[in-house]
Each structure stands twice: as structure tokens, then as C-alpha cells.
Specification:
Helix content: 40-55%
Radius of gyration: 25 Å
Shape: globular
Structural class: alpha/beta
Strand order of the largest sheet: 1-8-7-3-4-5-6-2
Number of strands: 16
């Protein structure tokens, strides 16, 4: 028996044969051509074909994992309209008289290397996306079919790494689990794996081609894979796998039941979504509402600044479908790792600390008003709450509320109906907001803790930098104290307080958060039922078990 270790993305057990996923070999002719015009035509045909493929991949990813996970394919499609990238490829054909395949390979590699040499980890990570799209263009030019690389029988897929497009092309019905030699827990592949509920192991350095076809067990609980396991181990982990399946079935029985602890404390469990296409997941997992609608995906999924009407239709659909459930819509949180070409944002050396979210909205008033007017118009179709992101001061809250009031007056003058009972809240995701929480609570109805950014800013750890993972501690006592401080401050002033970051779904902290007094937890839809189960097993009248040091 052979054992290899890595980093587990998702707890779970997968049993089956190994399938080594090998990238196709590109045989590219380096001969020169006399006339570059036909090559330019072939390149353009391939470019258009790949753009169409990216739309198909986007639709497939939305269905499998939601709009947030699928946004990368919109980025890929937009990349194929980038003038600098296209110029780099066409210059090699026109001036050097190389074939379209050679030009695509060199052009995309040159641009990818430029990204790789940037200091910002976000732009470094984009180099892999450039290569992914470049490979798709080359495959289109060479007429390669890469959809059959997975094989035809259920298997545990093993690869050096998987690009987002490769991951979403996989037939989930044949996929038992995934193992990669490279990758990070924040990669698109990892995000998709979590969304599809697949046991996955990354940074498994001992991968070998000899594994192909061998029986294996991927143990996500212990972050390892067993090749040619003993019969005793097969029997033991098969029982564990069957127990997991039974637990999943039992979770379905929680639908319609209250999220109440043994001693009688009830907490709301909401879902995080990226757009109207995620409504089905909210309903299927019986979430009580939406604690975070990431409205920036309405912008990311549009090739131009979305109009008020376009936004209104998106918000109306979610509110109308989920009524009377509460839907908390966060105003546009563009910036940092979420960029849009049509907004013409300057490149920044430290975008996480730069021009983003509420800072953009308050300085581009017309842009902000389009969204606020759309939200107000949609408010009559359901139960809306509006939330402002990246708040660090009282001035920002008051200014945002005044612009909202201005929009309300405009709509009233136009004869448009607006709901009277719209709750206003803010994201608490900076130490500044935590320390000013008492003052901020007097201006709003609720707080929602964005624990991803709060951890990043408190610990000075760039959440996009895979090299910093060994230094990152999502349970850092400073972050937990900030959460407790925020909950206490909100309650002192009549605000309800929720958590909408990744920590909300961390079951090892559920009891901690309940003892702190949190009112609501908002998580990805697939985490709703496991979280509800955890809540119903907690007895707050007894001494703390896992929460002692957190209070």
C-alpha cells in the first residue's frame, strides 16, 4: 500500500480507480508562412469559437456551482477581446510570418509571463488564466477534442493541476474525487470542488503516473490518499463513506424545522448568493432568506455598465421569487480581486486597500444612484434589506444614506412606488468598523460581519497569496474578539448582527458564535443544512465545549 498526503479541500471519502488526467500535447509547426492573411483568418475563427465555448462553460458552471464560481469564464471571454493581447498574437503572424498556432502559443505565454512577474499576487494568479485561454485557442486551431480526457467510468481524477475550464468540463457523474500536485485552497478549482461537494486533495507532491488504473481511497478527513489499500482499510473507510451518505440523507429531514438549540435559542440561517441563478439552491436547501446577495456579479456578468432597468429586473426576480423571505443585497463591491474593464479603474499596487466598494460608489454618484434606484424600485416585490460594504467611518454611512434618500425622493416625484420598511445595514469587515461599532450601530438596522476581509485586514495576511497560507489563522483570537465586540456593540443599540463570511459555515465555531450572541449566519447554500443540524445539537445551558476560549 502506498500513502500520499496533501491539503484537503473538503471532508469526505472517495473510493475508486485512479484516472490520470494528462493535458494534450500540442504539436505546433514552427515553419514560416508566405502570406499571414489566412493565418489571421484562422486565428479569428478560433478566437470566436473559444468565446462561444467560454459562454457554454459559464452556463455549466452556474448550474453546478452558482454565479460566483462561474464568473471566471466571463473573465476568460472578455480576455479574448483585449486589444493588447490580440495585438501581441497578430504581430507575430504579420511581422514574423508564423502560423496562427505558434502566434497563439507565444503571444499568450508572453502576456502570462508579464502577469507572473507582477508583485501583486492577484495579477500573478491571472497568469494561469491567460495560459488557460491560450490553450483553448491552440486546441481550436489544432482541432483537438479535450472533452474525452476524463474517460468513461467513475474515477478519482489525478492531475498536476486543473484549470477552471478543465474542472467545469468534467462530467460530475463520473467524478468521485480530485487530486492535484499543485493548486491552493483559494484557487478556482478548489472553489468549484467545494461548490460541487467533491472530496479534493491539493498540493499532493507524490503523484505518480504509476497510479493510473489502480484502486485508491481519497480520505479528505485525514488529507491523504491510499493507493492499493489493504482490505481492512477498504472495509473501514467504506463504512465511513456509507455513514456520510446516511448523514446527507438525514439532513434533508431538517427542512421545515426551526434552527433552535436544545435549550431554546433560535438563530436565523440564510444563504449567500451571486445572482438570480442561485435562487434554486436557496430553495432546495431550505434557507430562511438571503444574508448576502453579491450584487457585483450583476456587473461582472455584463460587458457594459448595467442599466438601472437591467439591475431592477435582476433584483426584482430574486425578491419576488423568495418573498416573503428577507433578501439582503450588498451594494456593488467591485475592486480588489474583482475588476471590470468598462469601469476603467486604475491598476493599484495594493488593490485590497485601494479604490473599491463604497469608495467607488461615493465618488461615482451617478453609478451608485443607478443601483440604488433599481433596488428601491424592486423593493415593492419582496422583503429587501440594503447593505453597504467596506465601511470604515460614520461619514460614509451618512453620505450613503443621504444618496439613498435622494433616490427615494426622485422616485416619489416620478410616481414610482417604494417599500417603506427597507432595512439598512453595513458590512463590518475592517478593524476600523469594529472599533467604531457603537457609533455606526446608531445609524443602521443591522451589521453583517465579513470574516474573510476582517481576517485579512486584522492579521495583515493577503487572502489571495497562496504563499501566506502557512501563516493564516482563520480562528485567530484577535478576529474572534472583534466578532464578539461587534455583536455586543450592535446589541447595545438595537442592531441585529450576522456573519456572512466563510467562518459562518465553520461548524467548529458554531457554538462559539451562538454563545457570543450572533443573530444570523449566512453561508453558501450547500452548508445550510449541515449548519442547521449543528445548531440543533448545541445546548447553551451547559458549560462551553468548543467555545470556551473564544468568549
Amino acid at each position: 500500500m502506498q500513502v500520499a498526503t496533501g491539503i484537503s479541500i473538503l471532508h469526505g471519502i472517495a473510493l475508486g480507480k485512479i484516472r490520470i488526467f494528462k493535458h494534450p500535447e500540442y504539436i505546433i509547426d514552427e515553419k514560416l508562412v508566405d502570406d499571414p492573411i489566412p493565418e489571421l483568418g484562422r486565428f479569428e475563427q478560433a478566437r470566436c469559437k473559444v468565446q462561444e465555448q467560454q459562454q457554454v462553460l459559464y452556463d455549466r458552471a452556474v448550474a453546478a456551482a452558482g454565479e460566483e464560481s462561474a464568473a471566471i469564464f466571463q473573465f476568460h471571454a472578455d480576455m479574448l477581446d483585449d486589444d493588447d493581447l490580440l495585438y501581441a498574437c497578430k504581430t507575430i503572424m504579420v511581422e514574423q510570418h508564423h502560423t496562427a498556432e505558434y502566434a497563439a502559443k507565444q503571444g499568450f505565454e508572453n502576456v502570462a509571463q508579464m502577469f507572473k512577474e507582477m508583485e501583486d499576487p492577484y495579477f500573478q494568479a491571472r497568469s494561469a488564466d491567460v495560459i488557460d485561454v491560450g490553450n483553448a485557442v491552440i486546441e481550436a486551431l489544432l482541432g483537438l477534442d479535450t472533452d474525452s480526457l476524463q474517460g468513461t467510468e467513475p474515477s478519482i481524477l489525478v492531475a498536476e493541476d486543473l484549470a477552471p475550464s478543465e474542472t467545469v468540463k468534467l462530467d460530475k457523474s463520473l467524478l468521485l474525487g480530485m487530486i492535484t500536485r499543485e493548486g491552493s485552497s483559494n484557487s478556482h478549482t478548489a472553489i468549484l470542488a467545494r461548490s460541487m461537494n467533491l472530496p479534493t486533495l491539493i498540493q499532493c507532491k507524490d503523484i505518480s503516473d504509476d497510479w493510473d488504473g489502480k484502486f485508491a481511497i481519497l480520505d479528505g478527513y485525514n488529507s491523504c490518499v491510499y493507493i492499493d489499500p489493504t482490505q481492512d482499510l477498504i472495509d473501514s473507510l467504506t463504512r465511513k463513506h456509507n455513514e456520510d451518505l446516511k448523514k446527507e440523507a438525514l439532513l434533508q429531514e431538517l427542512k421545515g424545522k426551526t434552527n433552535t438549540t436544545i435549550d431554546g435559542k433560535t438563530i436565523k440561517v440564510y444563504a449567500n448568493i451571486g445572482g438570480p441563478s442561485d435562487i434554486g439552491s436557496v430553495q432546495a436547501n431550505d434557507a430562511e432568506g438571503v444574508g448576502l446577495f453579491r450584487s457585483e456579479f450583476v456587473y461582472l456578468n455584463s460587458k457594459e455598465d448595467p442599466s438601472e432597468e437591467m439591475q431592477f429586473q435582476a433584483y426584482k426576480r430574486v425578491l419576488e421569487t423568495l418573498a416573503p423571505k428577507l433578501v439582503v443585497i450588498r451594494t456593488c463591491d467591485i475592486g480588489a480581486d474583482k475588476t471590470i474593464d468598462y469601469m476603467n479603474l486604475d491598476k493599484e499596487t495594493n488593490p485590497a486597500l485601494g479604490f473599491r466598494a463604497i469608495r467607488i460608489c461615493l465618488t461615482r454618484k451617478d453609478f451608485f444612484k443607478r443601483q440604488l434606484r433599481a433596488l428601491l424600485r424592486a423593493s415593492v416585490y419582496g422583503n429587501l434589506a440594503i447593505m453597504f460594504p467596506m465601511i470604515i467611518s460614520l461619514r460614509e454611512v451618512r453620505e450613503a444614506k443621504e444618496i439613498l434618500a435622494e433616490c427615494r425622493r426622485e422616485l416619489a416625484n416620478e410616481g414610482q412606488k417604494v417599500a417603506d420598511n427597507i432595512q439598512i445595514g453595513i458590512m463590518v469587515e475592517t478593524p476600523a468598523a469594529v472599533l467604531c461599532a457603537d457609533e455606526l450601530a446608531e445609524e443602521v438596522d443591522f451589521f453583517s460581519l465579513g470574516t474573510n476581509d476582517l481576517t485579512q485586514y486584522t492579521c495583515a495576511i493577503d487572502r489571495q497569496n497562496a504563499k501566506l497560507e502557512p501563516f493564516s489563522d482563520t480562528h485567530h483570537p484577535a478576529v474572534l474578539r472583534e466578532i464578539k465586540m461587534t455583536i455586543d456593540a450592535g446589541h447595545r443599540h438595537g442592531c441585529w448582527v450576522g456573519i456572512c463570511g466563510e467562518l459562518g459555515a465553520d461548524l467548529s465555531l458554531t457554538e462559539t458564535f451562538l454563545r457570543m450572541g450572533v443573530d444570523e449566519l449566512s453561508v453558501n447554500a450547500k452548508s445550510v443544512l449541515p449548519l442547521r443540524k449543528a445548531i440543533r445539537s448545541i445546548d447553551l445551558s451547559k458549560p462551553a465545549s468548543t467555545a470556551g476560549k473564544a468568549e
